[in-house]
Amino acid sequence: MRREEKALIIQDLSEKFANIPYFYITDASGMSVAKTNKLRRLCFDRGIEYVVVKNTLIEKALETLDTDYTAFNESVLKGFSGIMFHPESGKAAAKLIKDFLKENKDSIKLKGASIDGGLYVGHDQLDALTNLKSKAEMIGEVIGLLQSPAKNVLGALQSGGNKLAGILKTLSEKEAA
Questions:
Q1: What does the record give as the function of this protein (predicted)?
Q2: Which pTM value belongs to this model?
Q3: Most buried residue, 18, 109, 143, 172, by most Cβ within 10 Å?
């Protein structure tokens, strides 16, 4: 590979890392061609871009960013590396890896992930990544929590008004009798 080709790959990766806040670095070494094709097909079906790139090129692309990715240099960027990009969800790739592992035991390993600048290193982080909530889910929960006290007050006022109306109706019926 010539320097010009490497420079283009580094530039392309740098743009993806800067524009897509969620990426996963995986190790799929040792998988058969059939399993690799199945993984790529699954990625395509779920809207995840999967690319295999040399570690040195990944490292150089990460150096161009503001976030400190030196934790990846020590343990993540060793051996075979494939990168999964998903522009909308931080946990889509984690779910894909987990689903793929159900059918293909010990075929793919999570080496590291970056979710909105937060770094996750190691395959043991996979469960934590699948349980991450998206920004929209978090905003929905906060709005629900903020609305809850107001709904309780309105409910209490409405039920109290119905009780008061019932008491007044009973008293007026007693006076008429």
A1: Forms part of the ribosomal stalk, playing a central role in the interaction of the ribosome with GTP-bound translation factors.
A2: 0.73
A3: 109
Q: What digits encode the pLDDT tens for the residues 117-155?
A: 788 888 888 888 888 777 777 788 888 778 777 677 667
- Mean pLDDT value across residues 46-64: 90
Q: Which residue has the tokens 């522009």?
A: 87
130, 98 in Cβ contact below 8 A? yes
Contact 111, 27 (CB under 8 A): yes
Instruction: Determine the Cα–Cα distance for residues 109 and 97; give it in Å rounded to an integer.
Output: 8
Question: What's the rounded Cα separation, in Å, for the pair 86 and 75?
Answer: 23
Quick one: angle between helices 92-103 and 33-45, nearest 10? 140
